[in-house]
C-alpha cells in the first residue's frame, strides 16, 4: 500500500514538472524521424538539450585542463604570498623611514593651519 502511494506521488511529480510531456515529445520526434539514428539514446539526449557523448568528452577534457591550470596558478599564488610575507617586514621598515610619523604629520598640519590664518 505504501509503495503504491509512493509510485502515485512520483507519477504526479513527473506530470507536474513537465517531464512526461518532454519525454513524450522527444519519443514522438524519434518515431516520426524518417532516417532513424543509429543511437536512439544520443538522439534523445540531444533533443532534450544535453550534450552528445563527444561533446561531453570534450567538455570533460576542457574541465580537466582548466583544473590543471587552476592548480598551477593556485600554487604560484601561494608561493607569491609566502614571498610577500618574507618581504613585508623589510617593506614596513623602509616605508617607516621614508614617511613621517603620525605625530609629526599632525604637527605639520597644525603649523600649516597657523600659517594660513596669518
Describe the model.
Belongs to the AMY1 family. This is c-Myc-binding protein. It comes from Ceratodon purpureus (Fire moss). With 118 residues, this protein is an all-alpha fold. It has two domains: 1-50; 51-97. Helices cover 84% and strands 0% of the residues. It is built from five helices and no strands. The protein has helices at residues 2-16, 19-32, 40-47, 53-98, 102-117. Helix 2 crosses helix 3 (40-47).
Walk me through the topology.
Elements: H1 2-16, H2 19-32, H3 40-47, H4 53-98, H5 102-117
Helix pairs in contact: 2-3
Summarize the structure.
This protein has 118 residues and is mainly α. It has helices at 2-16, 19-32, 40-47, 53-98, 102-117. Helix 2 packs across helix 3.
Major beta sheet, specifics?
none
What is the global morphology? Answer: elongated
How many structural domains in the coordinates?
A: 2
Stretches where pLDDT falls below 50 for ≥5 residues?
Answer: none
Q: What pattern of helices and strands is seen along the backbone?
A: HHHHH
State the assembly state of the protein chains.
single chain
| Discrete helix count | 5
- Portion in beta strands: under 5%
What does the radius of gyration come to? 34 Å
Family: Belongs to the AMY1 family.
Keywords: Nucleus
Main location: nucleus
InterPro entries: AMY1
Features:
mainly alpha; 2 domains; AMY1; c-Myc-binding protein; 5 helices; 84% helix; 118 residues; nucleus
Amino acid at each position: 500500500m505504501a509503495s503504491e502511494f509512493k509510485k502515485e506521488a512520483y507519477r504526479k511529480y513527473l506530470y507536474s514538472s513537465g517531464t512526461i510531456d518532454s519525454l513524450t515529445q522527444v519519443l514522438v520526434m524519434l518515431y516520426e524521424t524518417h532516417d532513424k539514428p543509429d543511437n536512439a539514446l544520443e538522439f534523445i539526449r540531444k533533443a532534450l538539450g544535453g550534450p552528445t557523448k563527444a561533446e561531453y568528452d570534450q567538455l570533460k577534457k576542457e574541465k580537466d585542463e582548466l583544473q590543471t591550470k587552476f592548480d598551477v596558478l593556485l600554487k604560484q599564488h601561494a608561493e607569491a604570498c609566502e614571498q610577500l610575507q618574507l618581504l613585508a617586514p623589510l617593506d614596513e621598515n623602509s616605508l617607516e623611514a621614508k614617511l613621517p610619523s603620525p605625530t609629526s604629520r599632525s604637527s605639520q598640519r597644525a603649523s600649516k593651519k597657523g600659517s594660513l590664518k596669518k
